[in-house]
């Protein structure tokens, strides 16, 4: 009986010690680098009014999706964006239907590498992004049929 009480006391003490120590980060999630990203979204020279911009880590970049509202003047500020490759999506706003495919949240064609500098600045012209995407697609198709 005495051995059982001693065992219970040791188990309780160990449990408390582990709980209070917080495991010291040894067994917790690994921290990942993030940075603040600011910039603008335009369609040619006109700002995209409203909606949200989303940064989703891709190609092995570790992190979680971050989003922020796009202001009426087309600018945005997003905190804690994962450093590395990100797909950029636009949700809502006054986005013409012809441009929605290149910045769709489920398969955005807009990719940027975010650096760990103090603040990153990104300006996105959706018309230029669409033209670039169409050119890449056409080049891939032509190369495939050669």
Distinctive features:
alpha+beta, Immunoglobulin-like, 8 strands, 27% helix, globular, 2 helices, 146 residues, four-stranded mixed beta sheet, single chain, four-stranded antiparallel beta sheet
Helix/strand layout:
Blueprint (H helix, E strand, L loop, with lengths): L1 H20 L12 E10 L2 E2 L4 E6 L8 E4 L5 E8 L1 E8 L18 E5 L4 E7 H19 L2
Parallel strand pairs: 1-8
Antiparallel strand pairs: 1-2, 1-5, 3-4, 3-6, 6-7
Rg calculated over all Cα atoms: 24 Å
Mean pLDDT: 80
| CATH topology descriptor | Immunoglobulin-like
CATH homologous superfamily label = Carboxypeptidase-like, regulatory domain
* Biggest β-sheet description: 4 strands, mixed
CATH architecture: Sandwich
CATH class descriptor name? Mainly Beta
Describe it.
The chain is an alpha+beta fold. The protein has 2 helices and 8 strands. It has one domain: Sandwich (Immunoglobulin-like). The strands form 2 sheets. Strands 1, 2, 5 and 8 form a 4-stranded mixed β-sheet that branches. It has a 4-stranded antiparallel β-sheet with strand order 4-3-6-7, with no helix packed on it. Strand 1 and strand 2 form a beta hairpin. It is globular and about 75 Å long. The model has no long low-confidence stretch (mean pLDDT 80).
Summarize the structure.
It contains two helices and eight strands, in the order H-E-E-E-E-E-E-E-E-H. The chain is α+β, with helices and mostly antiparallel strands and 146 residues long.
């Amino acid at each position: 009986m005495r051995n059982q009480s001693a065992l219970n006391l040791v188990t309780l003490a160990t449990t408390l010690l582990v709980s209070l120590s917080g495991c010291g980060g040894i067994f917790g999630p690994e921290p990942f680098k993030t940075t603040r990203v600011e910039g603008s979204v335009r369609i040619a020279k006109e700002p995209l009014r409203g909606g949200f911009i989303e940064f989703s880590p891709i190609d092995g970049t570790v992190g979680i999706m971050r989003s922020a509202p796009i202001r009426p003047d087309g600018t945005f500020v997003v905190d804690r964006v994962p450093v590395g490759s990100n797909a950029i999506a636009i949700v809502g706003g006054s986005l013409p239907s012809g441009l929605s495919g290149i910045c769709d949240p489920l398969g955005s064609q807009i990719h940027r590498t975010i650096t760990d500098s103090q603040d990153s600045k990104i300006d996105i012209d959706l018309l230029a992004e669409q033209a670039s995407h169409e050119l890449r697609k056409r080049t891939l198709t032509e190369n495939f049929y050669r």
